Amino acid sequence: MSPPLAPERVLPTLNVDGTRRRIRPRLYQGPRLTARRRTAWALMVLFAVAPWIRIGQKPLILLDVEHREFTLGGGTFLPTDGVLLMLLLLAIFVGIIWTTALVGRAWCGWACPQTVYMEFLFRPIERLFEGSRENQMRLDKSGGGLRRLAKNAVFFVVAFLLANVFLSYFVGTKTLLRWMTQSPLEHWSPFSIVAVTTGLVFFDFAYFREQMCTVACPYARIQSVLLDRRSLLVGYDGPRGEPRAKGKPAPGRGDCIDCGACVAACPTGIDIRDGLQLECIACAQCADACDGIMTKIEKPLGLIRYGSQATLESHAPPKLVRPRVVIYPILLAALLAALAVLGADRKNAEITVLRGIGAPFTTDGELVTGELRVKVQNRSDTSERYTLSIVATPPVRLVAPENPLDVAAFAQRTTAVFVVAERSSFLGGGRAVTVHVTDSRGLAIDVPYRLVGPSEMKP
């Protein structure tokens, strides 16, 4: 007994019987496609060369997870820069919300890696091997043959190259080039990462494809709260196009001749005439297709165009200034200002003073000795020597096995020091001191600390 059929298609990528509906978009030339192609190739080139770009002696981007060092724009962040990283992530998040309120899902159609590589790298390769949309659909029914096998082989090579570029963002180009000349057995862990990444990229662009946008990506699910009726989107001018009918427009009918070009061009398989849908990635391929048809039937362009729900329905002039497009940039500016101020105030070293591991103090007659652990995090890109001293009234004596303390670039060291003080200087079981740390660059950091000692004088 066959399973019951749905009354209509549930998803653009599914047939009514639940089987996969493969999307084979027809390519229509137009100004938007040309602009998107130029943007996509610029982004792909940027992705490939960004790890090679240097600012000073540092890479533009290096996310060294192993050593917990993150270089962005020539500046290195450490895990202890949690506040700065949080502000950066918040700024990115607010920027995405603001961009969506202004231009809708332009990110999806113009700059998302899924769209960029699918539409402007993998699909062109596919068309090179398999031909037109109609021929691709015939190959879907026949199984593909040698042409599809050759196409997938090229897909795999491209996926492998992209995986290596991706790895360079985490290990650096020098390390990547060294690994590429060695046996995988000498660095099996990163090789495994490349292998897994290659498999995922190949699976995505050879099989999963538009389902990444329609099923997996969460951005489409939250667009309803990010968009408003004035946000930019790709839409169909219903008042002008309806009622639609096949054949040339006639009195009493709209400009839409129901040719299906907009549906054939859509990379996610939707019908833009059904209104705003979460599967729409605002790529405007349907707009280029429709403009081509409008030119042929001698009708004005723009039946499908960039606009907002409000302007498409009523042809009202666009309203650019509204509360959310004012509040979001103010919030974004505040986050960026806080990031700049805190980043500029960041010192080249971080000093942490901890209590010793053993007994809190020992006594020897009238002398009390307390053990401290001084943790020094060198944030600079050069090794440095740090000199430790204790500031206290009355004075105390510092005994340090290693002073100055040598710390490598971006490294962290912890040293034990001993503070010897007169028993009479302790009141209520403790006394205040200040750990003073300096280096050759003029850095001076004071860390207050309370020594633990005897609570009362000996009789």
Structure description:
- With 459 residues, this protein is an alpha+beta fold.
- It is built from 15 helices and 16 strands.
- The protein has helices at 31-49, 82-103, 106-110, 113-130, 133-142, 145-171, 173-180, 188-208, 211-216, 219-226, 238-241, 261-265, 285-296, 309-314, 323-344; strands at 54-55, 58-59, 61-64, 69-72, 75-77, 233-236, 304-307, 349-355, 362-364, 367-378, 384-391, 397-399, 405-407, 412-422, 430-439, 444-452.
- Strands 8, 9, 10, 12 and 14 form a five-stranded antiparallel sheet that branches. A four-stranded antiparallel sheet has the order 13-11-15-16, with no helix packed on it. Strands 3-4-5 form a three-stranded antiparallel sheet.
- A hairpin with a 2-residue loop joins strand 4 and strand 5.
- The radius of gyration is 32 Å and the shape is elongated.
Short description:
With 459 residues, the protein is of the alpha+beta class. It is built from 15 helices and 16 strands.
Quick tags:
four-stranded antiparallel beta sheet; Immunoglobulin-like; five-stranded antiparallel beta sheet; 459 residues; alpha+beta; 15 helices
Number of strands: 16
Main beta-sheet strand count, sense and barrel state: 5 strands, antiparallel
- Stretches where pLDDT falls below 50 for ≥5 residues? none
Structural class: alpha+beta
The N- and C-terminal alpha carbons lie at a distance of 99 Å
Instruction: Tell me the number of structural domains.
Output: 3
Tally of individual helices: 15
Helix content: 40-55%
Instruction: Tell me the Rg in angstroms.
Output: 32 Å
Proportion in β-strands: 15-25%
Shape call: elongated
Mean pLDDT: 88
